[in-house]
Design goal:
- With 282 residues, this protein is of the alpha/beta class.
- Helices cover 29% and strands 26% of the residues.
- The strands form 4 sheets. A 4-stranded parallel β-sheet has the order 2-1-5-6. Strands 11-10-12-13 form a 4-stranded antiparallel β-sheet, sandwiched between helices. Strands 7-9-8 form a 3-stranded antiparallel β-sheet, with no helix packed on it.
- α3 links the parallel β5 and β6 (115-116).
- It starts with a strand and ends with a helix.
Length: 282
């Protein structure tokens, strides 16, 4: 029985988590498996019926990973690449990627052990959401959220005082220059001070320098999101919107955070350890 960390080769968070967990367990109990090892595995057998799914997976080094071999999986795989199809025709390469994506999705979602960042139809590592979707969900959780407006015709219905962003960017990067606001859909966001606080929520455990009432609402948001692990990002509202105290506003969430700093890193490792111990006793 093993604890698996699945990740892309360049994932520093996954590597640090693997090293921290390996120090807690007997040799060989914790395995770090790269996305390349999975897609280049010489043997995949994945059977799905009306009741369950069963998998037999053999890696290139001869190691087998059957359906019941893991007590916990920390999944950090975001996408599929197929290096052995690099010289194939684009249509064939895209088809191979889609087939492998479907296989990994079915395998990850069918594992009987706890999976942190369990695959969903919208992503191999969990449910992806746009910034407006996160803001709406955070409002349901009771968090004060960054004001936002969306318009399909910004020239006809401009939003005074808010910052325009390309609709697909969801507030990432710099706002649009007014000259670039045309007829395409635009997301308008409330201005913020730029002072950023990050809050990590792993199960019921919260790490982050924000008031306690925000931490409790972050727990509710994590439950509403359906994810075991999320990061909540807060910025102070600009004075003319937030009042003299420039209150904290929830600005976005992430189910795939980079966790390298304390105390978030320790909270994450402890959460995985407790989750694995509980699963191993069952």
């Amino acid at each position: 029985m093993a604890l698996l960390v699945l990740a892309h080769p360049q994932d520093e968070t996954a590597l640090r988590v693997y090293c921290a967990l390996r120090a807690r367990y007997a040799p060989g109990r914790v395995r770090l498996i790269s996305s390349d090892e999975l897609v280049l595995a010489p043997k995949w057998v994945h059977r799905v019926d009306a009741d369950a799914a069963a998998t037999e997976l053999s890696l290139a080094n001869g190691e087998r990973l059957d359906s019941g071999a893991a007590t916990l999986v920390f999944n950090r795989i975001r996408y599929v690449s197929m290096p052995h199809f690099a010289r194939a025709r684009p249509a064939d390469r895209d088809y191979a990627v889609m087939e492998m994506h479907a296989l990994l999705l079915s395998w990850l979602s069918s594992l009987p052990c706890p999976v942190v960042n369990r695959a969903t139809p919208s992503g191999l590592y969990g449910a992806e959401r746009t910034v407006p979707e996160w803001l709406a969900l955070a409002g349901r959780a009771g968090l004060p959220v960054r004001g936002f407006r969306f318009t399909t015709s910004p020239r006809r219905w401009p939003v005074s005082g808010y910052l325009p962003y390309a609709a697909g960017e969801g507030g990432s990067g710099a706002p649009l220059h007014p000259a670039l606001v045309g007829r395409s859909p635009v997301l308008y966001l409330e201005p913020t001070s730029g002072e950023l606080r990050r809050v990590l929520v792993a199960g019921r455990h919260v790490a982050g320098d924000v008031p306690d009432h925000l931490k409790e609402a972050c727990r509710r948001l994590r439950e509403l999101s359906g994810s075991d692990l999320i990061e909540c990002r807060f910025e102070r509202s600009a004075a003319r919107f937030g009042g003299p105290d420039q209150a904290w506003r929830f600005c976005g969430g992430d189910v795939f955070p980079e966790v390298l700093e304390e105390p978030g890193f320790t909270v994450l490792v402890e959460y995985l350890h407790r989750l694995e111990k509980g699963a191993a006793r069952e």
